């Protein structure tokens, strides 16, 4: 009987928010289903918090793969066996005590538990999240994140960061929490992929897509991708472009991302802005298909976040040969390659406006190097890297189908 990799889709199966995290989850699951380790079966599962058990996410799996082979009609509870693996790469920060107890008991019976960690930003910068529920209606995000982090640090075989920067931060956090005699999970890292077609992308274009894309192609267009929240630099970008527009430059600023938290004033400024729909554009919840077209129609990606675990838009942009203008933070130095221009970590709108003007002059003179799309890591490579980290932690001796 083959060993099983139980892949957690608790959040994804309920509602795909279209975030970078859920793109990672979709992409890794799809790759594991299509190309599992030899001798292993991949089973998607979701946590039934009321019953305190994990169940086979059969209905979601059917939708995900388009399969109609199974005669089963309901999501049955699954049984963890010695040597099996539980892998959570989903945004499952609202796990409850009953499910933690279920996993802890299974760990005692030989289950390997591996948790992907995207960042520790809520721990390191709680001021960006305090007083919000951040998608979890009726709950405090910081409390949920704290419970999730402490729970998986206690029951996991390994915590796996999506960058070396995150892994180092996980190690520091474990050092801060460790008590004499307490168990400590292993930690490692992998780099996530960036080929959108391999992440089971969403599709569909708005009616205005042709005219919008034509506008983006006709004037220099600067794109920002990601949830609109305080740390992402959206307010800095808007102030910067207001200066550039006032100076007579015909430039487009394009936001692609859902509204997050603690940005009510910024959202009101966007919605009431005189340039909205002219030189300022905000797309909330567009398809991956349209996002790809916007990447290809843009002049550069603006990546101004103050803190990130990785920076998926940076490598997605690189995969399309799109230059990146990035804030100079540690993880961007780790993941960004050729074609990236760095600006100061504490840059002001006034200085950034000058930097963009200089960048544009260099771009028009052909002095800005574009990224090499062939250097971007695929989701297949990313998933192999992740599984190799798990193998090294648990000694599973994975083989792979051709």
Task: Break the fold down into its secondary structure elements and pairings.
Layout: E1 3-8, H1 20-34, E2 40-48, E3 53-56, H2 58-65, E4 85-88, H3 97-108, E5 112-117, H4 121-124, H5 141-155, E6 158-161, H6 164-177, E7 186-189, H7 209-218, E8 221-225, H8 234-246, E9 252-256, H9 264-271, E10 280-283, H10 288-297, E11 300-303, H11 312-319, E12 324-327, H12 330-335, E13 340-343, H13 349-364, H14 379-394
Parallel strand pairs: 1-2, 1-4, 4-5, 5-6, 6-7, 8-9, 8-11, 9-10, 11-12, 12-13
Antiparallel strand pairs: 2-3
Helix pairs in contact: 1-14, 7-10, 8-13
What does this structure look like?
Strand 9, helix 9 and strand 10 (280-283) form a beta-alpha-beta unit. Helix content is 39%, strand content 16%. The longest helix has 16 residues, at 349-364. Strands 3-2-1-4-5-6-7 form a 7-stranded mixed sheet, sandwiched between helices. Strands 10-9-8-11-12-13 form a 6-stranded parallel sheet, with helices on both faces. The chain is α/β, with parallel strands linked by helices and 402 residues long. The chain is globular and about 70 Å long. It is built from 14 helices and 13 strands.
How would you summarize this macromolecular structure in one to three sentences?
By secondary structure, this protein is α/β, with parallel strands linked by helices.
């Amino acid at each position: 009987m083959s060993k099983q990799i139980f892949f957690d889709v608790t959040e994804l199966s309920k509602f795909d928010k279209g975030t970078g995290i859920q793109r990672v989850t979709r992409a890794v699951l799809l790759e594991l289903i299509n190309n599992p380790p030899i001798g292993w079966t991949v089973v998607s599962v979701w946590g039934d918090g009321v019953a305190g058990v994990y169940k086979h996410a059969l209905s979601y799996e059917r939708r995900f793969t388009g399969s109609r082979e199974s005669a089963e009609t309901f999501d049955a509870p699954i049984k963890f066996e010695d040597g099996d693996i539980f892998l959570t790469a989903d945004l499952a920060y609202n796990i409850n005590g009953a499910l933690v107890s279920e996993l802890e008991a299974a760990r005692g019976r030989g289950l390997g538990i591996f948790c992907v960690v995207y960042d520790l930003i809520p721990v390191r910068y709680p001021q960006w999240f305090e007083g919000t529920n951040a998608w979890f209606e009726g709950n405090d995000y910081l409390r949920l994140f704290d419970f999730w982090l402490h729970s998986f640090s206690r029951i996991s075989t390994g915590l796996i960061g999506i960058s070396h920067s995150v892994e180092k931060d996980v190690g520091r956090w474990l050092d801060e929490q460790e008590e004499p005699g307490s168990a400590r999970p292993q930690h490692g890292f992998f780099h996530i992929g960036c080929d959108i077609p391999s992440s089971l992308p969403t599709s569909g274009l708005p009616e205005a897509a042709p005219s919008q894309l034509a506008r983006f192609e006709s004037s220099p267009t600067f794109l920002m991708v990601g949830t609109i929240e305080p740390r992402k630099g959206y307010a800095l970008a808007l102030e910067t472009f207001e200066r550039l527009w006032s100076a007579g430059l015909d430039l487009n600023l394009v936001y692609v991302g859902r509204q997050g938290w603690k940005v009510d004033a910024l959202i009101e400024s966007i919605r009431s802005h005189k340039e909205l729909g002219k030189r300022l554009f905000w797309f909330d919840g567009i398809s991956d298909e349209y996002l790809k077209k916007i990447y290809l129609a843009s002049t550069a990606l603006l990546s101004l976040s103050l803190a990130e675990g990785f920076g998926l838009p940076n490598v997605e942009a690189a995969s399309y040969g799109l230059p990146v203008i990035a804030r100079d933070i540690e993880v961007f130095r780790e993941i960004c390659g050729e074609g990236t221009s760095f600006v100061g970590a504490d840059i002001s709108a006034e200085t950034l406006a000058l930097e963009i003007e200089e960048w544009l002059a260099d771009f028009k003179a052909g002095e800005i190097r574009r990224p090499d799309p062939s250097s971007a890591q695929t989701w297949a490579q990313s998933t192999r890297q992740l599984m190799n980290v798990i193998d090294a932690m648990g000694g599973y001796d994975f083989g792979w189908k051709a």
